[in-house]
Amino acid sequence: MSDKKIENILTEKTVEAIKALFEQTVSPNQITLQKTKVEFEGDITLLVFPLTKVSKKSPEETANAIGNYLKKNVAEVTGYNVVKGFLNLVIADSYWTNYLINSEAISDKPEANAETVMVEFSSPNTNKPLHLGHIRNNLLGASVSDILKAAGKKVIRVNLVNDRGIHICKSMLAWKKWGNGESPASSGMKGDHLVGKYYVEFDKSYKLQISDCKLKGMAEEEAEKKAPLMLEIQDMLRKWEAGDKETIELWKMMNGWVYDGFAVTYKTLGVEFEKTYYESQTYLLGKEIVEEGLRKNIFKKKDDDSVWIDLTKDGLDEKLLLRGDGTSVYITQDLGTAIKRQEEFNFNRLVYVVGNEQEYHFKVLFLILKKLGHEWAQNLFHLSYGMVDLPSGKMKSREGTVVDADDLIDEMVNTARETTKALGKTDGMNETEAENLYHNIGLGALKYFILKVDPKKRMLFDPKESIDFNGNTGPFIQYTYARIQSVLRKGKEQSIKYQVSSIKYQIQKKEKNVIKLIHDFPAIIKEAADAYSPAFIANYVYELAKEYNQFYHEFQILKAEKEEEKKFRIILSAKTAEVIKTSLKLLGINSPERM
Question: What's the CA gap between 71 and 77, in Å, rounded?
């Protein structure tokens, strides 16, 4: 038996078969293999239709000829059947048992000469806490980063914090007016929540002023511009941009509160970054690029001195790059930041994890970078994700509009506590162990429920539904892992060894199904990495947990009659647990040893 994976063997031998049978040469890329459908006998199916062009024979004749050749020349192929243009190949049981015993754990170390992939995610504003939308963003960014690492890439996780602008000044002005020196220490509030409180206070007072202005006969648009708070906020922003000492000190103090608050939430979510960029340090970066674009006649200056690019021939619009007064807009900063990152890290790819409302922005950004002659711009990707909704009335937020990330996390842990206690899963645990388990189950439920959905889709998150120990949920998969750990502990007590180099055992169909799923794991990681989609991993590990549970209920493990049977099933259980743990880790989820 070869050490190569069966797909590689079959691809090589099919190329060889076509040369021998039809005197034609095909490349390995022309060979398409897939899992055999459950209703047919076989393990791996060769798609024959594309090969009829070289065989000059019907699909059935081509399939039979190749099937006969593979059965004679590949030790791992023990039989085949043909269904129209599909060649279903039966793979020897010995291949699956050998694979199981000799398979190695997935490494997260980069391959030699690995490409560098930068992933930007989170990107919060420093005027309020992280919210439900940020949770999806952070979980996607962190998981995609880990999946890319598991696929052998060198990964750099970066954050771009929006720490300047009029929205930041709103919190600052409100605190200055009505804060009376309140701080996180004096109030007992997390810093980001405290700053968010003053952002809401500003908004309430500003709306009252707009109403007063309208009562005095102003149109709404004029009222919004001339409300006293708006005039004060614009003055504060001008002072900030001019480097006014008092304004800068207030900004630094309040931002410091927010960063401390964010750090707690990031730690709870298991999110970290190699580098954090701040808009206050990057917003001027694009100005030199605008000058470069003007010199190259890619950009045009209008009579009011504003700078634009005309993308109408590319199916887009005209885009403002610099205001007439010389101030930058978001895309100016993004151009500068992208180029700075390329100079700093020489990345091969850059993935922006940003909501789908910014799709147009990134189309424009990538196109401008290409027009400026940056070849690496073709390797920029916007991982666009949909909104997260909650069932109406399920949760109340502090602001009455947006659900804070911390509130949702607390609710998840509380729900996990109630559900787990009711099922008696913490019986015999001390309080610390039990609380740790509630935390792992609550966060596992949240992460799994969000990541199992294709990122592009808008989704409905139901906290209660996510914490179900049956069905396609995080707790079900965590419980499967804990169940296997219980089996392994008991096996150890019986001195059953499962570190062996070979074993002779006639596997059952259910056992083979589990092994085949374990065999698929490296390919699933590659698929998830290529698609930037943790949903591939989530739905894969659910299928593995489900398949293992069916095996567990149908077969004896520790009470199996034969010693080889017992040993093999312990090995199967251990390898399944290993893959489940790695899969959950790629989703940022902990695997409890006991539940």
Answer: 5
Tell me the longest C-alpha to C-alpha distance in the chain: 93
Q: What tokens does 180 get?
A: 């009376």
**Buried b / exposed e along 242-256 (16+ C-beta atoms within 10 A):** eeeeebeebbeebbe
Q: Is the pTM of this model over 0.90?
A: yes
Residue 51 contacts residue 30 (beta carbons within 8 Å): yes
Q: 3-state DSSP call for residue 88?
A: strand
Outline where 132-227 has alpha helix (H). Answer: 132-150, 166-178, 184-187, 191-215, 220-226
Residue 538: strand, helix, or coil: helix
DSSP alpha helix (H) spans, 74-129: 93-102
Can you say how many angstroms the Cα of residue 379 is from the centroid of all Cα atoms in its chain?
19
Judge whether 96 and 111 are in contact, CB under 8 Å: no
Closest CA to 289 of 324, 255, 328: 328
Mean of the per-residue pLDDT values for the chain?
93
Sheet holding 116-120, edge to edge: 275-278, 154-161, 116-120, 349-355, 380-385
Q: Specify the residue for token string 């599909």.
A: 86
CB distance 6 to 44 below 8 Å: yes
User: What are 544-558's pLDDT values in tens digits?
Assistant: 999 999 999 999 999
Q: What 8-state DSSP symbol labels residue 105?
A: P
CA angle (343, 346, 350) in 5-degree steps: 105
DSSP string over 481-493:
HHHHHHHHHHHHH
Token pair belonging to 113: 């000469």
C-beta atoms surrounding 326 within 10 Å: 11
Q: How far apart are CA 385 and CA 301, in angstroms?
A: 35
pLDDT digits (tens, 9 = 90+) for 276-330: 999 999 988 898 999 999 999 999 999 999 999 999 999 999 999 999 888 888 8
The helix/strand/coil state of 388 is strand
Structural domains in the chain plus CATH codes: 6-91 (3.30.1360.70), 116-385 (3.40.50.620), 405-586 (1.10.730.10)
Residue 247 near residue 236, CB atoms below 8 Å: yes
Going by C-beta distance under 8 Å and a sequence separation of 6 or more, which residues neighbour residue 92? 1, 75, 76, 77, 78
Angle made by CA atoms 526, 527, 528, in degrees to the nearest 5: 90
